[in-house]
Amino acid sequence: MNARITTAPTRREFLGHLIRRPWRYPWSALAVLLLAGIIGLAAYFAGWQIWGEVHYRAALRSIEQATSSQTRANLEQALAQLKLCLQVRPRSLDTHFLAARTARRLHLYDEAEEHLSRCKKLDGVPEALSLEQALIQVQRADLGSEGFLWACVQKDHPDKLLILEALALGYLQTYRFKDALAALDLWLKEEPHALQAYVWRAELNKRLSGSDYLDAIHDSEQALALDANCDEARLNLAEVLLHKNMAREAAVHFAYLIDRQPGNVAPTLGLAKCKYRLGEAEEARKLFDRLLRVRPEDPEILSESAKLLLSTKQFGDAEEKLRRSLRVAPYEREALFDLSRCLELQGRKAEAQKYRDEYNRVEKDMAALKEVTRTIMESHKNPDLRRQAAQILLRNGKYADALMWLNSALLEDRQSAETWLLLAECYQKLEKPEESAVCRANAAQLQRRIIP
């Protein structure tokens, strides 16, 4: 009888048997399943980490692009990418730090401080965290670390450009225009493609140029050369051109912005002003009517549309719109002047004189404010001058601007009962009774210390 000779199955045959009849090889099947699971899990985690790295690198690209194009949009995109990355790497020090910096540049200060807090728990470099905290403070108009930051700039710190950006913003918010201009000039010298620096300097030069505006036009054009879709720079340029009575040139930019921002009132109002100045009355009227359907009680729209009515001798309609405008904004110079002229043209000279006198008073106040502002630029640490500016603004219904001046005065001297009382009045006008009560309490506490 011949013995049957059996041979061991080959590897391929064994795998075939294992797949077709796994119950015959339970331990081998289990080992294969475990191995496949481990490989799958490793692939999953590797893919997850790669996904996080992709978002981190995308954030870096967006931050780099933010230098010369669509600054805010690119920074917002970068922050969104960093948040996705943190879903994968919740303990990544680099990602939290970059998210803190990006949030700060977007003026999201609470969010920035949350990321800095995480960085501190993750043993972040103390010097880097301290610098970032100082930048948050200066952007919040607290310039206590100003000397330290300028020292970093002079030592050619790696983050010099970001420091100059924060300083410029802090100076702009505290009306230290001369210092803001110095920071912006140095920023652009170091980084000639800094879009945000051109936009801010154009706005600042518009304030400082008087009737010339050449520097403001130059900076706006430089910004648009870097990024033709920078709507902020284009709107600024259009408004400056309109101020220079270059209505035809301004109209081109306003029309471009309307196509890009159909829901934004500012370019439509600008184009309506241009059409009026160019003598295209019917086109101007259509634009004003469209605006008044959206914002029927907007004082500027009412006042500007009244100019068109005056030019066509529709005195009754013009008077009605000017009175509506002054009910909302009773101290607006142009509306006061135009209403005086409208009444005078109707033969109501005594009533017209009343509005002309108010116009002259406001005009005198605005001239005084301009002089105080100029003096503040030379002596920015004087809180009395800041209070004086705020008082002029309060007297003329500019409550939000007055609030900014008073807050900047507090940064120089928190022990002034007068400043706290003016703040209380300002908050009351802004219909914020709780804030007003706190300011009155602070003033009373300081007065008790002074009066024995």
Q: What would your notes on this structure say?
A:
With 452 residues, the chain is mainly alpha-helical. Among the domains are: 192-280, Serine Threonine Protein Phosphatase 5, Tetratricopeptide repeat (Alpha Horseshoe); 297-374, Tetratricopeptide repeat domain (Serine Threonine Protein Phosphatase 5, Tetratricopeptide repeat, Alpha Horseshoe), CATH 1.25.40; 381-452, Tetratricopeptide repeat domain (Serine Threonine Protein Phosphatase 5, Tetratricopeptide repeat, Alpha Horseshoe). Helix content is 78%, strand content 0%. The chain has 23 helices and no strands. It has helices spanning 11-20, 26-65, 71-88, 93-105, 109-121, 126-139, 146-154, 160-173, 177-190, 195-208, 214-226, 231-243, 247-260, 265-277, 281-294, 299-311, 315-328, 333-345, 349-378, 383-395, 399-412, 417-429, 433-450. 37% of the residues are buried. The model has no long low-confidence stretch (mean pLDDT 89).
Query: What coarse outline follows from CA principal-axis ratios?
Result: globular
Main sheet overview: none
- CATH class term of one domain: Mainly Alpha
User: Number of DSSP strands?
Assistant: 0
Kindly report the oligomeric state of this protein: single chain
* DSSP helix fraction: over 70%
Radius of gyration: 32 Å
In the CATH hierarchy, what is the superfamily of one domain?
Tetratricopeptide repeat domain
User: Proportion of β residues?
Assistant: under 5%
Structural class category: mainly alpha
What is the H-and-E element order?
HHHHHHHHHHHHHHHHHHHHHHH
- Return the CATH architecture of one domain: Alpha Horseshoe
Number of helices: 23
Distance between the termini: 130 Å
